[in-house]
Fold this protein.
Amino acid sequence: MGVHLKASRCRLCGALHHPPRAICPRCGPGSRGSLEEVELPDRGRVVAYTVLHYPPEGYPSPMILAVAEVGGVRLIGRVVGDLEAVGEGCEVEVVEGEGAPYLFLLEG
Ligand SMILES: [Zn+2]
């Protein structure tokens, strides 16, 4: 089951921010009150990834961290599922993780 994360969109410049912000870093303090909350899709595509053969204690080896483009923002997360299938451009589903959302690699 995918997770729809919240982001904020600046009405002044159109920039999307995740996590949501009260002030747009591009537009400065004058943008307070000009950001609206939007919901990101629960799917995205892998932009880049790295394989950790010596992950932090308590995590399985190998562990894959990926950057995925999700609805116009880039998220970093751990890939779970079929790790053999990971690659740039792969579609992932954002799923609930511990402390932070994971990126779930879809089967096939
Ligand atoms: Zn802005």
